[in-house]
Amino acid sequence: MSYSNEMLELTLARADREISGLIDDEKERQRVHIELIASENFVPRAVMEAQGSILTNKYAEGYPHKKYYGGCGFVERIEEIAIERAEKLFGAEHANVQPHAGTTANQAAYFTVMKPGDTMLAMKLDQGGHLSHGHPLNFTGMLYNVVSYGVDRDTETINYDELASIARKSSPKVIVAGASAYPRAIDFARFREIADETGAILITDMAHIAGLVAGGVHENPTPHSHFVTSTTQKSLRGPRGAFVLCMKEYAADLDRTVFPGIQGGPLLQAIAAKAVCFKLAGEPEFKIYAAQVVKNAAALGLALQARGFRLVSGGTDNHMVLLDLRSRRITGKAAERVLEEAGITTNKNAIPYDPEKPAVTSGLRLGSAAVTSRGMKEDEMKEIARAIDEVLSSPEDAATTRGVRSRMADLSAAFPLYKSL
Ligand SMILES: *Cc1c(COP(=O)(O)O)cnc(C)c1O
């Protein structure tokens, strides 16, 4: 038999029924479940089209007009547009849009300014920080002397005076602002003041709140930070990927750190999708989305409080609600499991000074970005709060779980997702 290119033309359904079937199953799961994972979202179809495009075929090591491969004319233009849009959206002097993921974006910023053994000061992981902020099993924990700050026991918000005193004592090379599980606004000006006073470089990791920043409902860290890192897939509603912003003086070093320092060829399909994401995030409709994300988190939090739940820090300023489940006599792990059975997807999360182990936890993290993208508003948040309360009040009662599951499916059906997919 001679070779023909038929294999190239097969649809996924014909080429691989197993994977195609599982994608269909996952699509259905996304359609009928209430998605409350704070780091997740539903991306616009346009973003997916770019990410699933023929750009995956192209190699383009290097930066626009300095590429190491031929045939880069069009993809160079795509990368330039992504860079320009990121800079404009966040008011940055320089953007690098190549990092494959948030952890890699942080690695790029750290490697640009720190050497192994240097001290970094970041938020405690069990009080809201991210793995890439110093977890012992993460490269940060292996390479750097990690010092951490936390939240005040009473207010459960960042104690800036304590942060300043830790910074004075430890003289860190880098201070990291930003978190994965912190429901309150972050005072970037204060962070910068502390960094300036102690001679540290301020790296703000805005992965969770980037969409709120773009939409104008959270202060923009860019003017206050030497570097800003972010993913694109969370509240910003873009593809799975990341970017780094920095001041002009660090631009050349940052670019060299990303390539050839820690990555090879960029994922052009992801960069095109990031460009689309940045465009959409600059449109007036996105401001309305971002404002509704915040309103929905507030409504969800209030409704849960009214039903007797305790919110860490007493409320929320952003897209996130962190529940303390101790008074409900259920662990985060058990709550996550029973809510999933009831058609509500969440994740267990440590709360500040959590007595439970990280694999169990006393907390549950909820986010409003994905349900807002579907079009849900305050009334739906109240309905979801009622459902959460019912399920967690009788977690052993299969009839309650089944009843809520069917109500959540009806609620989902009223907000259709990807109608043409
Ligand atoms: C999600 C997140 C990241 C990491 O993103 P990945 O793309 O999963 O590597 C980094 N920092 C913070 C604060 C995050 O919340």
Layout of strands and helices, then pairs:
Blueprint (H helix, E strand, L loop, with lengths): L5 H4 L2 H4 L1 H16 L1 E2 L9 H7 L10 E2 L2 E2 L5 H18 L3 E3 L5 H12 L5 E5 L15 H5 L1 E5 L10 H11 L3 E4 L10 H11 L2 E5 L4 H5 L12 E5 L10 E5 L1 H15 L5 H14 L2 H23 L3 E2 L8 E5 L7 H10 L2 E2 L1 E3 L13 E5 L1 H6 L3 H16 L4 H16 L8
Parallel strand pairs: 1-13, 5-6, 5-7, 7-8, 8-9
Antiparallel strand pairs: 2-3, 4-10, 9-10, 11-12, 12-15, 14-15
Helix pairs in contact: 4-12, 5-12, 6-11, 8-9, 13-16, 16-17
Describe the structure.
There is one protein chain. This protein is α/β, with parallel strands linked by helices and 421 residues long. The protein folds into two domains: 50-281, Aspartate Aminotransferase, domain 2 (3-Layer(aba) Sandwich), CATH 3.40.640.10; 286-414, Aspartate Aminotransferase, domain 1 (Alpha-Beta Complex). 46% of the residues lie in helices and 13% in strands. It has helices at 6-9, 12-15, 17-32, 45-51, 73-90, 102-113, 139-143, 160-170, 188-198, 210-214, 248-262, 268-281, 284-306, 332-341, 369-374, 378-393, 398-413; strands spanning 34-35, 62-63, 66-67, 94-96, 119-123, 145-149, 174-177, 201-205, 227-231, 242-246, 310-311, 320-324, 344-345, 347-349, 363-367. Strands 4-10-9-8-7-5-6 form a seven-stranded mixed beta sheet, with helices on both faces. Strands 11-12-15-14 form a four-stranded antiparallel beta sheet. A two-stranded parallel ribbon has the order 1-13. Helix 5 packs parallel to helix 12 (268-281), helix 6 packs across helix 11 (248-262) and helix 16 (378-393) packs antiparallel against helix 17 (398-413). Pyridoxal-5'-phosphate is lined by residues 39, 101-103, 130, 132, 178-180, 205, 207-208, 231, 242.
